[in-house]
UniProtKB/TrEMBL annotation:
Residues 1-24 form the signal peptide. Residues 28-114, 118-216, 318-415 form the Ig-like domain. SMART domains: IG, IGc2. This is Fc receptor-like protein 5 isoform X5. The gene is LOC120028020. InterPro entries: CEA_cell_adhesion, Ig-like_dom, Ig-like_dom_sf, Ig-like_fold, Ig_sub, Ig_sub2, Immunoglobulin_dom. Coiled coil: none annotated. The keyword Isomerase does not apply.
Length: 471
């Protein structure tokens, strides 16, 4: 029995020996308070608290396991210790504190410290560089810094913040920042403008930011096929030609070239526009050759259609073509008169009513406010039809480049204004009803005639039958 009691006490003795070897019973877990982020070369404080542990206490700040950083002794029952550290590159890691009191020991939880390098030297770089590119190409902007870590980025377009919010006014531009980059897959002219970024580190206290300078993105437009035309003027007895080459879209500067019969005869650099002019020799009535122009940029070269340099003097007999225009109620509203000319490259037109001249816009205001000229005077509109507008109209033409050239004149054409110029819908309805009634009457007459014939046939048959019976 005695041996059994000794065996029961053996585990207790072993446990007591283990506690004696380990330095007594463990202390309550201490509490370590410290920052999770700190700027490089700044000073931070870690506080280790161990409530309920009697002095004297020894506090140890450990890093990444058992690497001893600092030690502090508490001899006055303060139950806490302060550790002041200057942050270096090697300060990043996991910290905990160990408290020893009366042979007993306690370990705190871990505080993870990240070393933050302050941001500086923020700038925007582009691909392509410089940021000048044609529409439809890819643009990549990057917010770079010379120093900094744990950064966040904010982008600005024309000083408006770029966000992913669907309600942002910049959403139609499809500007989606990812990290420190801003990518536009297919740029348009709407993406041209000024871009900038802000890089920074957000902390509970003392957040730091660095702004870049604005970078200007320029979007170039591809050229359209140039259009070619020419004019002629007269000075004294000499004639001068001028060829115009023009593109409707594109980005200057561009170079225009003029070719006469496939031989280059001139060039001009347009720095602020998309048009160029070239003087050429020209004689009315003579074929001076075929001209074409080309426009060239740093990405394209396009050529116009050929144009024959021939000036045909005004000639032949003009003819006036009249077209009446009507309102919804089928009443005459206006009239359009066109002067049809068989010969003439650069005609100048003039109109008259009952022998009175209707002035051309280049000669002054018309005495008839209801008259309007269009197509260089070739077309005359009677915008308001009145009885005063009725009469005989003529058109005449001459060469616009030579005020001494002879006029050719059309035959007079009568333009007569009536109250109702066309059949109204009501009249058409009446005519249709009359036609329908005549059709019905004709049908009834045919039916009656067929019935009468049938009666006559029956009566004739009866008479023949009676005659045979009498015999």
């Amino acid at each position: 029995m005695k041996k059994k009691q000794e065996l029961c006490l053996l585990p207790v003795l072993v446990a007591a020996c283990l506690v004696s070897i380990m330095g007594g019973s463990p202390l309550p877990s201490p509490i370590l308070i410290g920052p999770d982020k700190a700027y490089l070369n700044s000073k931070v404080v870690f506080q280790c608290r161990s409530p309920g542990s009697p002095p004297p206490n020894t506090y140890e700040l450990l890093k990444d396991g058992n690497h001893l950083v600092a030690t502090s002794n508490d001899l006055q029952d303060d139950q806490s210790a302060m550790f002041f550290l200057k942050i270096s590159v090697t300060s990043e890691g996991s910290y905990h504190c160990r408290v020893t009191a009366g042979g007993n020991m306690g370990l705190s939880g871990t505080v993870r410290l990240q070393v933050v390098i302050p941001v500086s030297g923020t700038m925007v770089t582009s691909d392509p560089d410089p940021p000048i590119l044609y529409e439809g190409l890819r643009l990549t902007l990057t917010c770079d810094v010379t120093k900094g870590s744990h950064l966040s980025y904010t982008w600005f377009y024309n000083r408006q913040e770029v966000t992913s919010s669907p309600t942002s006014p910049l959403t139609p531009l499809l500007l989606w920042p990812v990290g420190n980059t801003l990518v536009v897959e297919r740029v348009t002219t709407k993406h041209a403008g000024n871009y900038s970024c802000i890089a920074g580190t957000r902390m509970q206290t003392n957040s730091r930011f660095s702004s870049s300078r604005e970078i200007t993105v320029r979007i170039k437009v591809y050229l359209s096929v140039p259009q070619i035309s020419f004019t002629i003027s007269k000075e004294g007895s000499s004639y001068h030609g001028n060829v115009t080459c023009r593109s409707s879209r594109g980005t200057p500067p561009v170079t225009f070239y003029l070719f006469l019969d496939d031989k280059e005869v001139g060039s001009d650099v347009a720095t602020e526009s998309l048009v160029a002019w070239f003087p050429v020799a020209i004689v009315p009535g003579r074929d001076m050759g075929a001209v074409r122009c080309a426009v060239e940029s740093d990405a394209q070269r396009l050529t116009s259609r050929p144009l024959t340099l021939v000036v045909v003097p005004v000639g032949g007999a003009p003819k006036v073509d009249v077209e009446y225009l009507y309102r919804v109620d089928s009443k005459m509203a206006s009239a359009r008169l066109q002067c049809l000319l068989s010969l003439g490259t650069f005609p100048f037109f003039s109109w008259s009513l009952n022998g009175s001249l209707l002035l051309h816009p280049s000669e002054g205001d018309s005495s008839h406010p209801s008259h309007a000229l269009a197509d260089g005077g070739r077309t005359l509109f009677l915008t308001e039809i009145t009885l005063e507008d009725s009469g005989y109209y003529r058109c005449r033409a001459r060469d616009s480049y030579d005020v001494t050239s002879a006029w050719v004149e059309s035959q007079p054409v009568l333009v007569q204004v009536t109250e109702v110029a066309t059949t109204t819908i009501e009249v058409m309805a009446i005519v249709f009803c009359c036609f329908l009634m005549l059709t019905l009457a004709g049908g009834v007459a045919c039916v009656m005639r067929m019935l009468n014939r049938q009666r006559d046939v029956v009566a004739s048959s009866e008479q023949r039958a009676r005659a045979r019976a009498a015999k």
